[in-house]
Amino acid sequence: MPYWTYILQNETTGKLDKGQTSDLKSRLERHNTPESGSMRYTYKQKGLWRLIYSEEHSTRSEAMKREKFLKSGQGREWI
């Protein structure tokens, strides 16, 4: 099963959200559904989220390491 590391951008505010998932399509739908209270950060932002970047990984561990990098100072510079 593939795992994904992704970067979403809010179309209204321009803010970014980084994460990892095994179902990229479903995750994007949840980020854009107001009823999804588990996505508190993205829920508080007005406007739709769009996928601007994704990477496929063969294990969840690899995806989690990449997510951690993207959230680091070096990762923010890379973005």
Indicate the topology.
Blueprint: E1 3-10, E2 16-21, H1 24-31, H2 40-44, E3 49-57, H3 60-70, H4 73-78
Antiparallel strand pairs: 1-2, 1-3
Walkthrough of the structure:
- It is built from four helices and three strands; from the N terminus they run E-E-H-H-E-H-H.
- It has 79 residues and is of the alpha+beta class.
- A three-stranded antiparallel sheet has the order 2-1-3.
- The termini are far apart.
List keywords for this structure.
4 helices, single chain, 79 residues, alpha+beta, 3 strands, 3-stranded antiparallel sheet
Distance between the termini: 26 Å
- Average predicted local confidence, pLDDT: 87
Instruction: Give the overall silhouette.
Output: globular
Low-confidence sequence ranges: none
Structural class: alpha+beta
**Helical content (DSSP H or I, runs of 4+):** 25-40%
**Widest sheet, order of strands:** 2-1-3
- In this structure, how is the largest beta sheet organized? 3 strands, antiparallel
User: What proportion of the residues form beta strands (DSSP E)?
Assistant: 25-35%
Total of DSSP H or I helical runs spanning 4+ residues: 4
